Amino acid sequence: MPNYPTTGKVIIAGAGPGDPELLTLKALRYLQQADVVLADRLVSEQVLSQYVKSEAEIIAVGKQCRRGASTPQETINELMVEYALKGKLVVRLKGGDVSIFSNVLDELQALKDADIAYEIIPGVTAALGAAAYAGIPLTARQYSTAVRFLTFYRNEVINDQYWKDLAATDDTLVFYMSSETLDGVVANLLKHGISDEKLLAVVEQATTPQQQVDVTNLYSYAENWKGKTFLSPALVIIGKVVALHQQFAWIANSPTRETYFKPVAKLFTASTVATEKANQNASRA
Ligand code: SAH
Asked: How far is CA 169 from CA 144, 146, 166, 278, in A?
């Protein structure tokens, strides 16, 4: 076992997509040693309650932009730097993998600027968690030779030329942060004549006990799924490989529709922690 340092460092780690057992041993070991854990919303509460030592400070710094409740990136950067400068071992715990659709670049820059040592630990990204737990091999032989991780959370991210390419390719397409804009995804692909052999799956709360997988043909999407809304987080998979779900699914859909991850507003946010601390100090004085 390598000898992990225990002070003045930030560990940026992925917690995986939900199932606490998908955490890496390395992330687990650092969580057991951490003085401070700065956790995203899409991190299983069980990971925090079971693996972090009881004296450690856990600060929820979730983001949920569409809901308007969120910890500013600036605050997250400041907290990391502040605690590391105090000599603490800080774990910055992110949902899924650290490098896929996360603000890791901002955080790395803040650490570099403050000359703070860091390590990066990968995690199972939602696409891989969902693929495994839905029985959809993303690059199954004879179905697809590549996979693309995409997002369509706002219109500007994908231009018309690229939609044309996405409709034509046999690559499997995985859309993050796009269940609320799914009508747009489907409309753009249909506009460019995507093959009707490709299916669309939405995997809600992948790898958690609340996982649900729904599949539709793109051409019957409007009819089948009109007005359908999805529980967050949800991942969209499009391609021929989606047909394999029917054959290889090994988990039944959750019979209930409950949310596994808590909404940001209900969590202890960095600002509430700061306010509580100020109150405690004031009452002590
Ligand atoms: N860094 C994360 C992604 C963050 S972006 C990762 O590597 O997985 C947040 C988006 O990830 C969500 O909007 C959703 O599309 C997807 N996501 C994260 N966890 C998920 C889960 N358990 N089930 C389905 N989608 C998930």
From this structure: 9, 9, 5, 56
